[in-house]
Design goal:
Elements lengths: L12 H13 L10 H26 L10 H31 L14 H33 L2 H15 L1 H8 L3 H25 L2 H12 L11 H25 L7
């Protein structure tokens, strides 16, 4: 179930160069997007480049797509698992709304979407964010840290911490403070560890995690409406359940997400 790290080198210089390049991309907003449309397009393009840079580093290391959970079977099962998970979460959300209605109450949603070209562009950009960041921070850096450090759990913790801190320089520039961005980095590191690094190490099912990353950034039911907190909580809990089911199925069939 673990990613195949046989082809990763145990040298630090590629990591340093990788972090410099990926951090520079977080400052793309300095070009001055003036509208929500420009911001969505800019975020999408920057995220795509982040993923492409990571793919370039994987190619340089001689790592195959299936080694990091991007093989053909991983795509098939990752997408299927996500759609099933998404449908179940939506069903639970609807059931919560129905029960609340019967009790004469209503459940607040986590937001609202007025569907327009801008909203569609924002949705697409979040999908690119999910895939770009997961390929970069789990597919490459997570595995590279393990190969370089040797101590798997220390490397995983460092990968999660790096993911959180990666957002900090740009946040400091935009917010004009340090404490807020550092607190946000701590939160993102924890989220990254619990919902991305650990599940990735457990299953190496990168396509599912990329799609879950999209959902985490753009909370929406399968019917394209904002969920209630019932649906959100169910989503985070059932994500682990879905991956547990996948592991059980994979173990019975002697295959995993890192195979082609």
């Amino acid at each position: 179930m673990h990613p195949d790290r046989e082809h990763f080198g145990s040298n630090w210089p590629p990591i340093i160069l990788f972090l410099v390049l990926e951090t520079l991309l977080t400052f793309w907003f300095l070009v001055g997007p003036r509208t929500a449309t420009q911001a969505a397009i800019g975020t999408g393009v920057a995220s795509a480049v982040i993923g492409l840079i990571a793919l370039g580093f994987l190619w340089y290391e001689g790592v195959r797509a299936k080694d990091v959970g991007l093989g053909g079977r991983a795509w098939i099962w990752g997408v299927i698992l996500f759609v099933v998970w998404w449908a179940v979460v939506t069903g639970i959300d609807w059931a919560g709304r129905g029960i609340a209605s019967l009790l004469g109450r209503s459940l607040p949603t986590v937001g609202s979407y007025e569907w327009s070209l801008v909203t569609i562009l924002q949705l697409v950009s979040k999908i690119l964010v999910g895939f770009g960041e997961e390929i970069a921070w789990r597919g490459y850096l997570h595995n590279k840290y393990v190969a370089v450090i040797g101590r798997r759990w220390l490397a995983i913790l460092l990968a999660a911490l790096t993911f959180g801190l990666w957002h900090t320089p740009a946040d400091i520039v935009t917010q004009g403070s340090v404490l807020g961005p550092l607190a946000n980095a701590g939160l993102l590191s924890l989220i990254g560890l619990v919902f991305f690094n650990l599940p990735y190490e457990w299953t190496s099912l990168l396509p599912f995690l990329a799609l879950f990353h999209f959902w985490n950034d753009f909370l929406v039911d399968i019917n394209m409406q904002a969920p209630t907190w019932v649906g959100v909580i169910a989503g985070y809990v059932l994500m682990w359940v879905a991956l547990w089911v996948y592991r059980r199925l994979a173990a019975k069939r002697s295959w995993s997400g890192d195979q082609g």
